[in-house]
Amino acid sequence: MSDSLPDPLVVAYQAREAQYAALRDAALTHTTELIGAAGLKIHHVTGRLKRPASLADKLRRKPGRYRTLEDVTDLVAVRVITYFESDVAAVSRLLEDHHEINWEHSVDKSMMHDPDRFGYMGVHYVVKVPPQVERFIPHVTDPPHHYEVQIRSILQHAWAEIEHDLGYKNREAVPREVQRRFYRLAGLLEMADEEFMNLHRLSHDYAETLPERVQTEPDSVFIDAQSITHLLDVSPVRDLDQAVAESLGVRLLHGWPDAERPQRIAALLHYVGIHSVGGLLGELRRGRADILDFAARWLPRLPEAWLPAGGARPGTSLVNYALLRACANPRLAPQEIITALDMSGILSAQQLVDSALDAYAEVTGEELIDERHS
């Protein structure tokens, strides 16, 4: 065969490219739905179709190895990128449970490389096309029988992409002059992968022990987004929020869809000098009456800020406590609380500050002379 003629397998592949594209899309959807149903949190899933030029290059590099298109196992590939290396195993088990694996052509690349490299590149499975995918492939006499699924952590993926871009597909490809630095960098990435997994475990353990620690040793619990999220659902914060809502004649909203609200509340509590759960709980016990009085005077002055939500948001008592404390301390700026709550655009910042200072003056029963008041 003349070198100028295209390989018959490339010609056959181009003739069926639309079919393989349909397989890619169906396999991508199936894999995504499978991971979602299992409740696994991953970074992303993508699908890839081999380019004809890439197939031609593969056939040239390995002459005689592929007799039919079915012998080429990576024409269609789904790539699953996880956040953590430990999740690679979880996704692998899921795929094994729901697919018929071609073990002869599948490989765990973590087992293939020497220990002096971050060469583990995840898991590559060749899977038989399942019925859930096959029904979306255009009907032909000989439909594709398999596709590849690649599973990597996000750092494994980054390394593999950079390594591929540099052209270093194996040890021999790495120039001797750069091998030491190359492998040292690989080791750092492997350590980073392990540390991210450790951080994930520590975060999970922290959340698991948080309720008990709040009960038994609240002074040792730092004010952060996680501790605030917990406090919003328990007494005394929940009871105080309910009391604020009742004083306004509205309902307390549950499950408010603002993932950043606990972080904002933690930031404003730090601003007014509250850093531990124990300190916050003490302040709420001592200041309960003033917090409710301030909220009943301040919130009706700016219905535009909270009425459109349909009620009082979780954590409203903490917001009013922080604002009350900021008004009481000349060295603190109520505007910082307004900024932390992201209330811009409802009223001007100065209008919000003025309304808070006026409410504070009514709570204390004193005529307010404050340079922070316009």
UniProtKB/TrEMBL annotation:
RelA/SpoT domain ranges (all copies): 47-174
Superkingdom of origin organism: Bacteria
Matches recorded under PANTHER family: GTP PYROPHOSPHATASE-RELATED, RELA_SPOT DOMAIN-CONTAINING PROTEIN
Name recorded for this polypeptide: GTP pyrophosphokinase family protein
Originating organism: Deinococcus arenicola
